[in-house]
Automatic annotation (TrEMBL):
Entry keyword set: Acyltransferase, Transferase
GO CC term, one of those recorded: cytoplasm
Protein's recorded name: Amino-acid N-acetyltransferase
UniProt xrefs under PROSITE patterns: GNAT
Superkingdom, taxonomy of origin: Bacteria
EC number: 2.3.1.1
GO terms for MF: N-acetyltransferase activity
Pfam families hit by this protein: Acetyltransf_1
Organism: Zhihengliuella flava
Family annotation (NCBIfam families): PRK07922.1
Domain N-acetyltransferase: 4-140
PANTHER family: ACYL-COA N-ACYLTRANSFERASE (PTHR43626), GCN5-RELATED N-ACETYLTRANSFERASE 2, CHLOROPLASTIC (PTHR43626:SF4)
Amino acid sequence: MTDFTIRPARTSDVSAIRSLVRPLADERILLEKEAVAYFESLQEFVVAEDVAGRVIGCGALHVMWEDIAEVRTLATDASARGRGVGKALLEALMDNARALGVDRVFCLTFEVDFFGRHGFTVMEDQTAVDPEVYMELLRSTDDGVAEFLDLARVKQNTLGNTRMIARL
Ligand SMILES: CC(C)(COP(=O)(O)OP(=O)(O)OC[C@H]1O[C@@H](n2cnc3c(N)ncnc32)[C@H](O)[C@@H]1OP(=O)(O)O)[C@@H](O)C(=O)NCCC(=O)NCCS
């Protein structure tokens, strides 16, 4: 039974999104960002809303380059896990990726089994982008992009995470 809906995020969801992320950031599972960063990237987000109108999950798709995007900040409230919320959020983000014209979707995660069941495979090497694109991505100030590139300045964020990729 589906007792939740997936929809694009609204500005009024930011505090709920931050509440979903905070406990996971405390466990170093997700990266915590300033409130302004959530408003600035709001169009990247989808949320899951239960019948009472409560936000019980969120996820974002961040475009990195012409053919590649990243699923980030995918989170289901601990009380709502195992009901298909994460799957529905991920499917919505993959639909958004297709609509945007992206070919591949990257994620950096501890949830290897979950992503593995949804078409993601562990990246064997770092050659997901051409050397020219790598050089262009180095110009980004985004920490998620730095994690994708495995840069030293974000190594503390990536410890223990697995880099995975899905083709659309
Ligand atoms: C990853 C995460 C978002 C999954 O959320 P979720 O809502 O529990 O996901 P689902 O319910 O779709 O799937 C979870 C499990 O429940 C089971 N399940 C799915 N739909 C179900 C349903 N309708 N009824 C019963 N069980 C179901 C599945 O077997 C699934 O198992 P799997 O994880 O081994 O594939 C959640 O665990 C989370 O918030 N993790 C912490 C943050 C994180 O690491 N995010 C990823 C990096 S961005």
